[in-house]
Amino acid sequence: MAVAKTILEVIFIIVCIALTVIILMQEGKSAGLGAIAGAADTYWGKNKGRSMEGMLVKMTKALIVLFILISVVLNLGVFN
């Protein structure tokens, strides 16, 4: 059981680092002055889900779910 706990802790640390990096790579949600001029209606604004930003958002959601699941398993005391 100690080996499984160690492996899960290492995976947890990797998920934490990856989550931090992906969150820092994302753009801010404030539109700024571009929204006044209509710049939000560009091609990349309409296809946000297929862009790099959309991929980062999906990866963030997946890593958050993984983070929560691993933290719950580690805190339940299954490995003690």
Q: How would you describe this structure to a colleague?
A:
Helix content is 70%, strand content 0%. It has helices at 2-25, 34-37, 43-46, 52-75.
Helix and strand run = HHHH
Low-confidence stretches: none
Quaternary arrangement of the chains shown? single chain
Structural class label: mainly alpha
Instruction: Enumerate how many helices there are, as a single number.
Output: 4
Question: What would the principal axes of the Cα set say about the shape?
Answer: elongated
- Tell me, rounded to a whole number, the average pLDDT: 82
* Number of strand segments: 0
The main β sheet shows up as: none
* Portion in strands: under 5%
In short:
With 80 residues, the chain is mainly α. The protein contains four helices and no strands. Helix 1 (2-25) runs antiparallel to helix 4.
Strand and helix map with partners:
Layout: H1 2-25, H2 34-37, H3 43-46, H4 52-75
Helix pairs in contact: 1-4
Features:
about 80 residues, mainly alpha, 4 helices
